[in-house]
């Protein structure tokens, strides 16, 4: 192997490792952003679940009121 070929190979190897290191660093940064985004979504999902639970309870209470016999009688009286 000649000296010129050896120098070219050293340059290619050096540049190749530099590119790989840069790709790895970008991958790590992307993973960190993804993790932060997922944690934010988890908190928002938990809030939405609590809101749905509260709304479900309110609907059940309203259903009990509407199906109550006293409510039906009052509705009939108001129609007259």
In summary, what is this structure?
The protein is an all-alpha fold and 80 residues long.
The oligomerization state is single chain
In round numbers, the mean pLDDT is: 88
C-alpha termini separation? 108 Å
Globally, the shape reads: rod-shaped
Write up this protein.
With 80 residues, the chain is mostly helical. The protein has two helices and no strands. The longest helix has 65 residues. The model has no long low-confidence stretch (mean pLDDT 88).
List the helices and strands and how they pair.
Layout: H1 3-67, H2 69-79
Defining key terms:
95% helix, mainly alpha, 2 helices, 80 residues, 0% strand
């Amino acid at each position: 192997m000649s000296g010129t070929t050896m120098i070219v190979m050293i340059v290619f190897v050096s540049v190749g490792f530099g590119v790989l290191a840069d790709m790895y660093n970008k991958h790590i940064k992307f993973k960190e952003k993804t993790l932060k985004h997922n944690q934010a979504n988890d908190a928002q999902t938990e809030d939405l679940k609590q809101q749905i639970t509260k709304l479900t309870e309110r609907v059940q209470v309203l259903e009990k009121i509407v199906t109550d016999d006293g409510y039906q009688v009052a509705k009939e009286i108001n129609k007259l």
